[in-house]
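Protocol step 4 of 6: structure prediction from sequence.
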Amino acid sequence: MKLDDKIRRRKIAYMLNREPSIAFELALLYFIQAKRRMAQDKILEACNKSIYWLRKTAIRIPDNLKQLCFIEQLKEIEILLVHNKAMVGARLPAATGFGL
């Protein structure tokens, strides 16, 4: 399954359930997408989407995150994801049918 397909399925799951853990998964998927991109504008776009989904999880986001360059944004997003990875771990038993 391609990354875009996983993102699409997680968006649908979030629209149905509105669970913060699904939003966290989306932020993680967009972070992975940003790490895979080569063009700067595509990296910025994926970073912005990851930040958007992190805000949906009620994680405290630094105010200046959007003002950083894309390399610094990726580092900060990675730190936020690592420090809050328990959000996904709490949902894993229920997610066995989704393939993620």
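Step 5 (inspection) to follow. The chain is about 65% helix and 0% strand.
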